[in-house]
Amino acid sequence: MTENLPAPAVDTGAPVRVALVDDQQLVRAGFRMVIDSQPDLEVTLEAGDGLQALRLLADHPVDVVLMDVRMPNLDGLQTTARITAAADAAGGGGGAPVPRVIVLTTFDLDEYVLESIRAGASGFLLKDAPPEEMLAAIRTVHRGDAVIAPSSTRRLLEHLVTVLPAEDVEDSPAHTAVAGLTDREREVLVLMARGRSNTEIGGDLFVAEATVKTHVGRILAKLGARDRVQAVVTAYETGLVRPGT
Questions:
Q1: Backbone angles phi, psi at 128, to 5 degrees
Q2: Residue 27's CB: how many other CB atoms inside 10 A?
Q3: Which residues pair with residue 124 across a beta bridge?
Q4: pLDDT tens digits, residue range 86-115?
Q5: Cα distances (Å, whole numbers) of residue 230 to 13, 45, 47, 137, 213
Q6: Which of 42, 79, 145, 215 has the CA that lies 20 to 30 A from 97?
Q7: CA–CA gap between residue 98 and residue 92 (Å, rounded)
């Protein structure tokens, strides 16, 4: 079942509209206080479970959703998958935005995090991350990038290697896709996995940022990845990137 959600976000210069989906009211209140303290961000929707979130999102468009994993009625993984399915069905058409999802997690939920990324989340964030990291994550995702840069995110990605399924078949779709990358595209993907922004990658490789954006777009297309997070997970799965490298 595809929820009737609006199409992908367009930056209008207005405050970024944020939805908080968490079954703990005190957690939502704390997040709201931090987010609403920023002139460019505002919480416009709160929900205590996934079903309530989907109902509200159908009529109240937002730009970014902070999504808890463990909730009653419909958990964060299923809710993220339905939001993503709606975005794919919309096909980037007009209308109000389909929100990007940041999954809130803790280190003991590694497998859930991996599932959420595969369900289409644009990033993940530790629940005990500093407020400034949460705010940066919201802004980053709204710009169209996935949340890779925060140090906790890279630690989580490297930690995820221990729960990633073995990809030993060299002709698997993931390996085939990575093999189809050019040498420069592989360089860019490795730097993406290290948390480098497009500007930083351009500086590292001595090319223009616009050139980096072109490479990133081609990498995502070749890997069949929705965004940078999914591309980086593929890089880890296939061994292109190793923890600590």
A1: -100, 20
A2: 15
A3: 103
A4: 766 665 445 556 788 998 877 655 566 667
A5: 27, 27, 26, 16, 16
A6: 215
A7: 9
